[in-house]
Amino acid sequence: MKINLYKEILPENMRKKFEITKIEKKIERKPQEEYWIYVEEKKDNYPKELKNISREEISLNGFLDRLEIIHSPINNNPVYLQIYRRRWKRKGETNSYHNEHEIHKPGMKCTQEFGNFLKELNRQKRSKFFANFSYIRNIKEKDF
Q: Which of 7, 64, 1, 77 has the alpha carbon at shortest distance from 36?
């Protein structure tokens, strides 16, 4: 079986509707490195309000506010997804439409898969994890 590792980096619930546009390795706090994965919603992933309309009548209308969430670490380095969700409109109209995605659980700043992993850890293992990854932004042990 042929595997597209580039696509496998994304959480499973995002693979069909989003695409990776860029991956950067940054050094934010020495010696710690971070991976930033930039993800955009696919152009042909029209909202349900526009599904029965011809493509010629639909135009892109920018993006919603960027969403930054934490994903599973790679090589002990934190991974941040920079998610850009699209807006569309019917040509000649001003109303915008967008999709609702369940990328993360309400109140959590991490992917569903990563959040589930952390919730499954017992208190001792979770404390050890956060001791090793104390530099991860926007996520605290008390959240779990």
A: 77
Tokens representing 73? 């670490």
The pLDDT tens digits of the residues spanning 87-128 come to: 999 988 889 999 998 888 777 788 888 888 888 888 788 777
The two three-digit tokens of residue 72, written as one number: 């599973």
CA dist 76 and 33 (Å) reads 9
Claim: this prediction has a pTM higher than 0.85: no
Query: What amino acid occupies position 62?
Result: G
Using alpha carbons, select from 76, 78, 83, 97 the residue that is nearest to residue 34. Answer: 78
On whether the CB atoms of residues 68 and 80 are closer than 8 A, the answer is yes
Q: What radius of gyration do the chain's Cα atoms show?
A: 18
- Retrieve residue 63's tokens: 């993006």
63 CB burial (10 A radius; 0-12, 13-18, 19+): middle
Q: How far apart are CA 107 and CA 64, in angstroms?
A: 19
Place of tokens 């104390």: 134
